[in-house]
Amino acid sequence: MNRSGKEVNAQYNSARGGGITDRVSTRMRRRMYAHFIAAGVADDDRILDVGVTSDRDQLASNYLEAWHPRKDRITACGIDDASFLEDLYPGMRFVHGDGKALPFPAQSFDWVHASAVLEHVGSAAEQARFLAELHRVCSKGIFVTTPNRWFPVEFHTVLPLLHWLPAAWFRALLRTLGHHTLAREDNLNLLGRRELNAACAQAGLKDWKVQSVSLGGWPSNLLLVARRP
C-alpha cells in the first residue's frame, strides 16, 4: 500500500473478502471455470495455472486449484509465494516464476490457464509477450480471462465509468482518489475486445477466439481461448 493511498490486496483490488463484490466475483469465476473445462480440457490433461496469488481472504482466489478435481495434474506458477497451495491441495505443485519468462520447456503442459492476470502485466507490448509465453509452453491451448474494460464498473476499485476515460485521465483520477498502486500501468492496464485481439495478433497467435461472460446482461469478463494449430 502507498503511505498516502488505499490498500490493495494480493488480488490487486480493495474489495473486502466475503463481501458482496467478492461473492459476485466468485459466481462469475464459477462460470469462467466451466468455460475452461468446456474448451476441451481432458481429465488427465497437464495444466499450468499462471499467476496464482498469496491471497487467502477472497473466496475465489486460486479457484482452479480449489475446484479442479485432478490436483495431481496442476502446476501453479506465480511471482507471489503461494507454496501454501501444496499443503492446501495435496498432489499439485507450486513453482515460483514470472509469466513473461516461464521456467519450463516448450509444450510442457497441455493447457495453460491464467485468470485475471493479463491486466496486471504492464503495457500492451508486455501483455503480448505474456500471451506468447503462455502459448510457448502449451501443447493444446491457453485459456485467459480478463475484466472487460467496457463493463460499467471497474472491478479492482469498484468505481463506475471512470475507466472509460482515456487511460492517462483515468490514472490521474486514480491517483487523486488515493489508488496510487492501481494508477500505474504495470499494475493495471485494462483491455477491451479490440485490445485483446490486438495483443493476440502481436503475440503471433494463429488460432484464437474471444468470448465473454455477462453480469446483468453486460459482458463483464473476456475469455480468450487460443489453440495450438
Account of the 3D structure:
The protein has 2 domains: 167 residues, Vaccinia Virus protein VP39 (Rossmann fold, 3-Layer(aba) Sandwich), CATH 3.40.50.150; 31 residues, no CATH class. The chain is 27% helix and 23% strand. The protein is built from 6 helices and 9 strands; from the N terminus they run αβαβαββαβββααββ. The strands form 2 sheets. Strands 3-2-1-4-5-9-8 form a 7-stranded mixed beta sheet, with helices on both faces. A two-stranded antiparallel ribbon has the order 6-7. The longest helix is centred in the first third of the chain and has 19 residues. The radius of gyration is 17 Å and the shape is globular.
**In CATH, what is the homologous superfamily of the largest domain?**
Vaccinia Virus protein VP39
The main sheet orders its strands as: 3-2-1-4-5-9-8
What is the ordering of alpha helices and beta strands?
Answer: HEHEHEEHEEEHHEE
Q: What's the total number of strands? A: 9
Please give the domain count: 2
CATH uppermost class of the largest domain = Alpha Beta
Biggest β-sheet description = 7 strands, mixed
Count of DSSP-assigned helices? 6
Q: What value does the average pLDDT take?
A: 94
Rg calculated over all Cα atoms:
17 Å
Estimate the global geometry from the Cα principal axes: globular
Poorly predicted runs are none
Share of β-strand residues: 15-25%
CATH topology of the largest domain: Rossmann fold
Question: What is the CATH architecture term of the largest domain?
Answer: 3-Layer(aba) Sandwich
Secondary-structure content class: alpha/beta
State the distance separating the first and last CA atoms. 43 Å
Give helix % range: 25-40%
